[in-house]
Amino acid sequence: QVQLVESGGGVVQPGKSLRLSCAASGFTFTTYAMHWVRQSPGKGLEWVSVISSDTSSKHYADSVKGRFTISRDNSNNMLFLQMNGLRDEDTAVYYCARSGYGSSWYHWYFDLWGRGTLVTVSS
Amino acid sequence: EIVLTQSPGTLSLSPGERATLSCRASQSVSNSYLAWYQQKPGQAPRVLMYGASRRATGIPDRFSGSGSGTDFTFTISRLEPEDFAVYYCQQYGSSPSAFGQGTKVEIK
Asked: What residue of B is the nearest CA neighbor of A110?
């Protein structure tokens, strides 16, 4: 079954860290660039970060650059997002997503999404 | 940075009716790199269209998309009960990719 399953969300205080994970199954994980996309009531859907299939390239939204780090483990079909220095505005549901057919670097849409994991930043 | 504006905010229609949604970009979207997603409560978005007019795998032909430049349209020819949801457009022609704020299609 083709799916993505996120985990690791929770409630965290401002300035603290959290690590999200995404387990991929049912497709050849190593051939796809993978993304994190978040959704909050205030800001809607927002692309967060991407990592290339071979981990050689990474790209971040300006809003998280320098605080978040994306990584992947192709041996175990896992995607990660290390979030440091969390802020109130990082509160959102975080989705793991796969680059869609025909996507290229900087030109990606998303053809497979996980169910998401909720991150709440609050004191 | 391209900003996408979707209209209307809410569309109230009956099953069997035609739904027409608009997505307007603040700048031209290169190569018509525009996607449409459907999202139901408690679920992740699901891609319906990409490249403005290409249906994603398994998407019924009652869904269609058109447009280029700054003006894009998404149409559901005959609404089925399962089509009532929120729809988002996304441009991926330039970085950063951006989403519209969504159009809710609700049962009248």
From this structure: B47
CA distance to A24, A34, A80, B25, per residue, from A74 (Å): 10, 11, 11, 37
Taking only the tens place, the pLDDT of each residue in B57-79 is 999 999 999 999 999 999 999 99
User: For A4-35, what is each residue's pLDDT tens digit?
Assistant: 999 999 999 999 999 999 999 999 999 999 99
Angle at A106 between CA A100 and CA A110, to 5 degrees: 20
Do residues B73 and B22 lie in contact, with contact meaning Cβ atoms separated by under 8 Å?
yes
CB contact under 8 A, B97 and A47: yes
Residues with Cβ within 8 Å of residue B9, at least 6 apart in sequence: B101, B102, B103, B104
Say which residues have a Cβ less than 8 Å from residue A114's Cβ, sequence separation at least 6.
A3, A4, A5, A6, A22, A95, A96, A97, B44
Q: Which residues of B, range 41-100, sit inside 8 Å of A by Cβ?
A: 43-47, 50-51, 56-57, 88, 90, 92-100
pLDDT of residue A123: 94
Q: Which residues does residue B63 pair with via DSSP β-bridges, in sequence order? A: B76
Which residue's structure tokens are 């605080």?
Answer: A67
Give dist(CA B32, CA B71) in Å, integer: 10
β-pairing verdict for B86-91 and B98-99: antiparallel
